[in-house]
Amino acid sequence: MLIFTWMAIAFIWDLLGIPRVRSTEEKEIMATEDQVIMEPSLDFPFLNDTKTVEYVGESKTLLLLRGPPGSGKSSLATAISEKYPLKVAICSAEEHIPQGEKPPFSREMLKKAHTDCQQCVKDACKEAYPIVIVDNTNASLLSVKNYSGIGHEFDYVDVLVVPQTSWILDAQELVKRSSRGFPLEDIQRKLEKFQEPIYPLFYGWFVNKTDSETMRGTGETFYERCLSKREFREEFTKHLLPDASGKTPDPENYFSTENYTVGPVMLHCTAFYSNYGEVSQSEAYATQERVKADNGKAFTIKVIGLLVTPRSLGLRLKLDDEELLLWPQDEVNEVAEGGAEETCDLAAGEKSGPCDDECIITHLSPTCGTGSRAHFSLGSGPGVEAVQTGLDLEEIIKMEQEAVRMKRSHIVIALEDATAVGYGEGNWMVYFDQACSTEALFAGYF
Ligand SMILES: *[C@@H]1O[C@H](CO)[C@@H](O)[C@H](O)[C@H]1NC(C)=O
Ligand SMILES: *[C@@H]1O[C@H](CO)[C@@H](O)[C@H](O)[C@H]1NC(C)=O
Ligand SMILES: *[C@@H]1O[C@H](CO)[C@@H](O)[C@H](O)[C@H]1NC(C)=O
Ligand SMILES: *[C@@H]1O[C@H](CO)[C@@H](O)[C@H](O)[C@H]1NC(C)=O
Ligand SMILES: *[C@@H]1O[C@H](CO)[C@@H](O)[C@H](O)[C@H]1NC(C)=O
User: Fold this and answer.
1) Where is the signal peptide (predicted)?
2) Which atom of ligand 4 is nearest to the CA of 115?
3) Nearest CA to ligand 1 atom 1
4) Quick one: pLDDT at residue 39?
5) pLDDT at 335 over 50
6) How many angstroms separate the first and last alpha carbons of the chain?
7) CA 323 to centroid of ligand 1, rounded, Å
8) What is the pLDDT of residues 141-158, one digit of tens each?
9) Ligand 4 pocket, 150 CB below 6 A?
10) What are 260-296's pLDDT values in tens digits?
């Protein structure tokens, strides 16, 4: 009886196109069902990590559940909505298929279900629910990109989540557990599709809109402080790239995010670029235990300086030990010519291996070796792409090492709360007296 009442309510909500926030009544039913029928693992950072729970509860997050029917997506969705009362909207393509219908569903019906589900996600995002969940059996890359695209429009950070259930690859078991009574052949087909892995464009740490604006403000403040110094302004302006019309640009309005495909509002630090699986090490990276376990986990990212070159403007980060575990160790993504760690050794004297706090011998080399390339891009010079920031930071790190080793000359300017060092050719690094930090969610970007 209870179930029918709930179904009727759900149906009306769906008819009205209102994203459903699971009611208390439903919670009870689902909780009982969960215990009896399913025992999905709740070992996800957004369910078991205090800091992440606190963060996700107030930062727009789009959780895209991926798994065959019966794999525990709905139970997981319920567990999440219980963890975050009144903060979760759940959109399910299947719930947009009329209850009486039995598979196989017609092409038209599926198409409509997806269109309705997309509308549900859009509405939920518009309403600014902190957490929007998409419960979708057909999570092809195209379909995931479609939903994440809606999320990006509304400044949501997307996280693809696969239920951790022991039977997720067991077709017989899935048949028993699937609520819509899919026949075995159907389940097998869906299972095959599910087993084709999908990879994001890249993995990294994502800063939400509010915090991005704050960090951007910090970067701009220090850039303005640089520009207020005659010595900086003269050296830097000499090396600016001409704009499209060939005029000498004005440093105040020099950097732009016009050509950024990701963002441009929201800052991110790329850990691994997988290009939807085109990069051959994608599987090796994605299947690492740490990468899987930390998907959707909140981190505090330390910002230690501002990088200013004629090509890019960016914030320099110092990853902590836990964050470094997510940095690719295989040097493939690490363009560390000549071995960054080796130069770190030289700079640090006795120290070997990647820099730890003790390794910071001078403010001229606050980071080096693995992970030192970590940054948030803030802007690019005319015709320059966003990826340039990372390359410029690598160059600057080499120049820092040289400055320490060879006593190579550089310009030093004291700024309010920072020191700007010019390494020549318009390449500057602004070292903050004190690091600042921001919260960020580790995830893949689709
Ligand atoms: C939470 O879940 C993660 C991801 O599976 C796991 O690695 C971690 O040990 C769990 N933490 C706790 C406190 O249960
Ligand atoms: C971003 O996260 C901060 C906490 O770090 C939170 O106060 C803020 O509301 C969030 N903003 C958005 C748009 O999610
Ligand atoms: C799954 O999604 C793809 C792309 O969005 C679509 O072409 C296909 O028809 C969908 N299949 C089902 C069974 O919903
Ligand atoms: C998602 O797919 C629908 C059609 O199925 C299309 O109208 C819409 O533009 C797509 N959205 C994105 C963000 O790709
Ligand atoms: C954006 O890209 C176009 C085409 O590559 C280029 O002509 C233009 O200068 C770029 N704009 C900026 C601000 O970099």
Assistant:
1) 1-23
2) 5
3) 43
4) 66
5) no
6) 41
7) 16
8) 999 999 999 999 999 999
9) yes
10) 888 777 999 999 999 999 999 999 999 999 999 999 9
Give percent of the chain above pLDDT 70.
82
Length of the chain: 446
Residue located nearest, by CA, to atom 7 of ligand 4: 115
Cα separation, 405 vs 114, whole angstroms: 60
Distance CA 100, CA 72 (A): 21
pLDDT (tens digit, 9 = 90+) per residue, 197-214?
A: 999 999 999 999 999 999
CA of 369 to the centre of ligand 3 (A): 44
Beta bridge partners of 376: 315
**C-alpha dihedral sign at 16, 17, 18, 22:** positive
Atom of ligand 5 nearest to the CA of 382: 14
Under 8 Å between Cβ of 291 and 285: yes
Please report, for residues 65, 189, 364, the alpha-carbon distance to residue 127 in angstroms, rounded to integers and kept in the order given: 20, 36, 47
For residue 289, the ligand 1 atom closest to its alpha carbon is 7
Report the DSSP beta bridge partners of residue 439. Answer: 300
Atom of ligand 2 nearest to the CA of 130: 14
Residue type for position 11: F
Q: Do the strands 61-66 and 131-136 form a parallel or antiparallel pair, or are they unpaired?
A: parallel
Substitution candidate for ligand 3 out of 94, 110, 145, 147 with most atoms within 8 A of CB: 110
List, for residues 400-438, the tens digit of each pLDDT value: 888 877 766 788 999 999 999 999 999 999 999 889 999
Q: Given the CA of residue 114, which atom of ligand 4 is nearest to it?
A: 5
Residue nearest to ligand 3 atom 6, measured at CA: 143
- Which comes out higher in pLDDT, residue 243 or 142? 142
Ligand 2 contacts CB of residue 59 (under 6 A): yes
What is the CA(140)–ligand 4 centre distance, in A?
14
How many angstroms separate the CA atoms of 446 and 444, rounded? 6
Cα 43 to ligand 1 centre (Å) = 5
**CB burial of residue 358 (10 Å; 0-12, 13-18, 19+):** exposed
The verdict on the CB of residue 111 being under 6 Å from ligand 4 is no
- Give pLDDT, residue 178: 83
Cα 9 to Cα 21, 23, 320: the distances in Å are 11, 10, 48
Atom number in ligand 4 closest to CA 118: 1
All structural domains of the chain, each given as residue ranges with its CATH number in brackets, are 45-198 (3.40.50.300), 205-264+296-328+360-445 (3.90.1740.10)
Which ligand is closest to the CA of 164, given by its number? Answer: 1
**CA contacts within 13 A on the Cβ side of 409:** 2
Cβ contacts of residue 434 below 8 Å, gap of 6+? 417
Q: pTM of this prediction? A: 0.85
